[in-house]
């Protein structure tokens, strides 16, 4: 009998399980260029890390004075992204190992992401992660995206788990805030190292300031085991 029997683990997708931000940046750059906004920079993209695609393009309309509707921008950006994601999306090796460790112990897992259902499905299928991660919630399926807790609470509901028994893995401040608002513990693995001092990250039960460079499957598993024993 595993010491993790009462536990469920919820994963953010982009920047946490997979390094999809370069594809999201390129999809955003292409979309904005098509709508008359050249030279969208990586630094500008970083402000949207952890924010849902719908909320991102909604902000673009105001920030850049775009005439296209949110739905049109969503369709174009998702189209570019899906093409890029299907061609190449890299899974963080230690995250894959962590998923496999948890799967071997029968720990219930879910993905809770700000991406569209189509994008999540394409990435999980293309990387083979769908073999272990079958419960998926997109921010498009709930009233509010992160930092609201809706995606994590819905993921817990689908797993039949108590939020207090859930641990979230997140890379971005809005996601850590969402986990905290959901009453869940969070392992934070910042994608943007400079954001590790953001106040939202202080709410994480475990903050790995070095991001993916500091994350190991074995270390995370040992932390979960210690936490379970202390509960």
Automatic annotation (TrEMBL):
SUPFAM superfamilies: HAD-like. It comes from Streptomyces prasinopilosus. Signal peptide: none annotated. Coiled coil: none annotated. PANTHER family: 2-DEOXYGLUCOSE-6-PHOSPHATE PHOSPHATASE 2 (PTHR18901), PSEUDOURIDINE-5'-PHOSPHATASE (PTHR18901:SF38). This is Haloacid dehalogenase superfamily, subfamily IA, variant 3 with third motif having DD or ED.
């Amino acid at each position: 009998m595993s010491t993790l029997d009462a536990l469920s683990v919820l994963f953010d997708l982009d920047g946490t399980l997979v390094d999809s931000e370069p594809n999201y940046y390129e999809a955003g750059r292409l979309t904005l260029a098509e709508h008359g906004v050249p030279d969208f920079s990586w630094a500008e993209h970083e402000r949207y890390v952890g924010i849902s695609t719908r909320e991102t393009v909604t902000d673009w309309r105001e920030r850049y004075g775009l005439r296209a509707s949110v739905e049109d921008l969503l369709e174009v950006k998702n189209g570019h992204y899906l093409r890029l994601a299907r061609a190449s999306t890299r899974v963080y090796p230690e995250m894959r190992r962590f998923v496999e460790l948890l799967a071997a112990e029968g720990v219930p897992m879910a993905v809770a992401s700000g991406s569209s259902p189509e994008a999540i499905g394409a990435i999980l299928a293309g990387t083979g992660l769908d073999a272990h991660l079958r419960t998926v919630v997109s921010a498009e399926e709930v009233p509010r995206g992160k930092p609201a807790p809706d995606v994590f609470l819905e993921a817990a509901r689908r797993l039949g788990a108590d939020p207090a028994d859930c641990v979230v893995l997140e890379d971005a401040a809005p996601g850590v805030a969402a986990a905290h608002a959901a009453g869940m513990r969070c392992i934070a693995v910042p994608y943007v190292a400079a954001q590790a001092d953001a106040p939202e990250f202080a709410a994480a039960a475990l903050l790995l300031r070095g991001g993916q460079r500091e994350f190991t499957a074995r270390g995370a598993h040992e932390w979960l085991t210690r936490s379970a024993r202390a509960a």
